[in-house]
Design brief:
By secondary structure, the protein is α/β, with parallel strands linked by helices. The protein is built from 9 helices and 7 strands. It has a single domain, classed as Rossmann fold (3-Layer(aba) Sandwich). Helix 1 crosses helix 7, helix 3 runs parallel beside helix 4 and helix 4 runs parallel beside helix 5. The protein starts with a strand and ends in a 5-residue tail after the last helix.
Length: 260
């Protein structure tokens, strides 16, 4: 039976890079995101360059019912050996701003609800088959409170905690969970809602999507539970252990403030 990799948020950025890595590794690939035209173009590229089967399943992951349909359509008569839970949304701006809520609600729907549904369905499916790997794209934000990106940081803290807990539950099953926790990465995520204007990004720069994806894919293949790529990101991830949490939050408030 062919083995498949399901990649969410596959139309660009990290998702696109993960799809290429999956095809290079010989997996047939299922691509999902909202932008069907970009998915179809990527599917054609993967088929031509790597001679793998590619299925395009456009979906709005902010809709829980659509997430369930996505999993059902993806897994029917297929063995999903890899799930890359990559889709994510964020919002830069003060929590008190009322007009932030639609984007924050969508962030919770995608980063928490959709990611959990897909992970839960995939884990059960993989345990039944006796093997499988889940790569959850969390963030260095998982370790830190995030003033000016409070909801996004909270969703990623949830995702990291969920990943670690389920990874422990799955010991001995042949199924592994890896949480990838990158810092700022050159993707469309940071172009949305002025997030690219945060001091953290403008002063410290961003890693390439290709390098981050390769790091996460290698960690997943080794069955590592957590991967924080980059020295500076590792420092940030350990800040709450090295300094008072109030001080950490104050520093992050400065780094996540939008610049003119």
């Amino acid at each position: 039976m062919a083995v498949w990799a399901l990649i969410t948020g596959a139309s660009e950025g990290l998702g696109r890079e993960f799809a290429i890595l999956a095809a290079q590794s010989g997996f047939d690939v299922i691509l999902t995101a909202r932008q069907e035209d970009k998915l179809q173009a990527l599917a054609q590229q993967l088929e031509q360059e790597y001679h793998v089967a590619v299925v395009v399943l456009p979906a709005d992951l902010a809709d829980a019912a659509a997430v369930e349909r996505l999993w059902r359509d993806a897994s029917t008569d297929r063995h999903i050996s890899i799930l890359v839970n990559n889709a994510g949304l964020g919002r830069n701006g003060p929590f008190a701003e009322a007009d932030n809520w639609p984007r924050e609600a969508a962030s919770i729907a995608v980063n928490v609800v959709a990611a959990t549904i897909l992970m839960k369905r995939a884990v059960a499916h993989m345990v039944e088959h006796g093997s499988g790997r889940v790569l959850n794209v969390a963030s260095v934000a998982s370790f830190l409170p995030g003033p000016n990106m409070a909801v996004y940081h909270a969703t990623k803290a949830y995702f990291l905690s969920l990943s670690e807990a389920v990874a422990t539950e799955l010991r001995g099953t042949g199924v592994t969970i890896t949480a990838l926790c990158p810092g700022a990465t050159r993707t469309a995520f940071f172009a949305a809602d002025d997030a690219q204007k945060a001091t953290l990004v403008t002063r410290m720069g961003m890693a390439s999507a290709k390098s981050v994806a390769r790091s996460g894919w290698a960690a997943m293949e080794k069955g590592k539970r957590i991967k924080v790529p980059g020295f500076l990101n590792t420092v940030f991830a350990n800040l709450p252990r090295l300094a008072p949490r109030a001080l950490v939050a104050w520093v992050l408030a400065i780094l996540l403030e939008r610049r003119a």
